[in-house]
Design brief:
11 helices, 11 strands, Immunoglobulin-like, 40% helix, alpha+beta, 300 residues, 4-stranded mixed β-sheet
Amino acid sequence: MDASDKQFFELLKQAVAATYLKENHASASMEEWKGEEIVGFQEDLFQRTRGRVSEKWFYSYFKNEPTKLPRIDMLNLLCEYTGHEHWNAFKKLNLDAIKIQYKTKRNRKYLWLFLPVVPLLIALYYLVNPDNEFQFCMVSEDGGEPITAIQIDVKILSEGQSPIYLKTDSTGCFSYVTKEKIVRFVVQSPYHKTDTITRNFDANTNAMVLLATDDYALMLRYYSSGNVKELKKRRAQLSELIADNARIYQVFPDQTGIELYSKEEFITKLTIPTSSLKNINILDKHYEGDKIVKLKFSIQ
């Protein structure tokens, strides 16, 4: 594979990942996708194009470093998945991006000429770049309500520096001031699933962070304290969130099969603190309005 083909294929991989992430949850890097993410991508590819790729093919061309391009029919299939007519159309559309990358690499050899002014540029950066104040509010993924009943632990991650620890206030929000344009932080709570968030300052207006409920921890709390009232409230909340005719599937490991659940069966599974609830992993959710109409999950 020559250098230009390699660059075009890397752009196609990025476009494929971006297409999948529009309606699914996974790492932004396809190299980090595992079994469940790969299965989800295979199903999404089939739904959009009626075409398939095997898990072996995925590992050969997406997770590993290929030495040659895939067959042209596979390239055309992936281009169709990303909304392009075919491979040649995709290359034509991205030709300018490849030229820019080439010019950037060519200009790097002249970088040494500017090394003496680097300290001056750094000082100038801090003079002309004012502080950026990030503000985030924690919201329940289930009901869309602010999380104010408990404080959420926040760990700010800065490259080359020790983490900074914060907590949300009484409104479920926190703020952080930095000169950086991008902030990365971890959110933790006894009754929500830990998540790592990355946000750009330019997209930070009234930013909300959706947190998924840790149903196992929550149910364990209700059962151990005998809090029947809150347990019934949680069941009612789930009943309101899930459509009556929702299609709910459990996907078994290694694509060995699926099991179909009714709405009531799934709510019961989410409201009894068993070992399976502790290891449940939501693979995919589809909404119509504010109701879940399709959901796939697995038990790790």
